Amino acid sequence: MTEAILPSSSLSRYYDAVCMYATAVNDTLAEGGNPYDGLAVISKIWNRTFYGMLSGKITINSVGDRFSDVIVLRFWTHREKLFRTKKNKSVNQSSTEISPQTYAVYESVSSTLTFKVATKFPWPYNKGEPPPDQPLCGFAKKKCSLSDSDDSNVVAGVSGFFGVVVMIG
Q1: 80-103 pLDDT per residue, tens
Q2: Side by side, which strands form the sheet with 66-67?
Q3: Which neighbouring-strand residues pair with 98?
Q4: CA 95, 100, 102 angle in degrees (round to 5)?
Q5: Which residues form the Receptor ligand binding region domain (predicted)?
Q6: Which residue, of 23, 36, 93, 118, has the fewest CB within 10 Å?
Q7: pLDDT per residue over 96-144, tens digit each?
Q8: Between β-strands 48-52 and 56-60, what pairing exists: parallel, antiparallel or unpaired?
């Protein structure tokens, strides 16, 4: 059975970049410009939206920064078992199909978040609830006392190890 091999995401971005550049060069030539004039070619890329083959919508602003849209996906795994007979022998074959489901899309140009599915997002941990907004000890570990921190546990463990080594040897 032949499986489709998808190109890497970085390869698709390079492909889309070359297509954007080629489009800008073609537009420069169509207006009678010089394709060796880098500023003329770049000016055809700025303030423009391209549609990449694999990257989707690519929007470049007036200073050459790319707006990146974010798509939140969940991949569902479907497993099927196929039972076939070959010359009166049963054969157990299984196949796996992975299908993506789009939950939300953030469009950076308009700063809008659109939910595509009305159901609750299935968080894999924390009993299906979203993770907390802050870590338990805070981002700078200021909410935890020194005795509860990982650093003091590591220091105690290393000290205990060397204490045992000194006593034995």
Answers
A1: 555 555 555 555 556 667 777 788
A2: 48-52, 56-60, 66-67
A3: 77
A4: 165
A5: 7-70
A6: 118
A7: 677 777 888 888 888 898 888 777 777 777 787 888 888 888 888 777 7
A8: antiparallel
Whether the predicted pLDDT of 7 surpasses 70: no
| pLDDT value at 149 more than 60 | no
- Among residues 69, 72, 44, the alpha carbon closest in space to that of 56 is found at 69
Domain boundaries, the chain: 1-68, 132-169
Question: Residue 31 carries which side chain, given as an amino acid letter?
Answer: E
Tokens of 60: 């470049």
- As given in the structure block, the two tokens for residue 16 are 């889309």
Residue-by-residue DSSP string for the chain: -----PPPHHHHHHHHHHHHHHHHHHHHHHTT--TT-HHHHHHTTSSEEEEETTTEEEEE-TTSPEE--EEEEEEEEEEEEEEEEETTEEEEEEEEEEEEEEEEEEETTTTEEEE---SPP--SSGGGPPPPSS-TT-TTS-SS-GGGSHHHHHHHHHHHHHHHHHHH-
